[in-house]
């Protein structure tokens, strides 16, 4: 088995995956469940997922008001 490969679990947060990438100075991490490789997360795919999450949260918040409306 190869050791020293940066990994995260399928349940890891996007923030944790980004931390692992930064700590290992890499643009990808292996997604491992037990000892089985279930995927690879790249920096590009992480940014796309984060962008979707931010857009989804913004859409669910509705309009914002500055409190000065009459």
UniProtKB/TrEMBL annotation:
Top-level taxon of the source organism: Archaea
What's the name of the protein? Chloride channel protein
Does the record bear Coiled coil in its keywords?
Answer: no
Which Pfam families does the UniProt entry name for this protein? CBS
> Cross-referenced SUPFAM superfamilies, in alphabetical order?
CBS-domain pair
CBS domain ranges (all copies):
1-58
Going by the UniProt record, its keywords in alphabetical order are: CBS domain
Q: Which InterPro entries match?
A: CBS_dom, CBS_dom_sf
């Amino acid at each position: 088995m190869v050791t020293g490969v940066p990994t995260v679990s399928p349940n890891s947060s996007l923030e944790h995956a980004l931390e692992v990438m930064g700590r290992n100075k890499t643009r990808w991490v292996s997604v491992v469940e037990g000892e089985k490789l279930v995927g690879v997360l790249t920096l590009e795919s992480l940014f796309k997922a984060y962008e979707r999450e931010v857009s989804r949260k913004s859409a669910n918040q509705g309009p914002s008001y500055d409190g000065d409306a009459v």
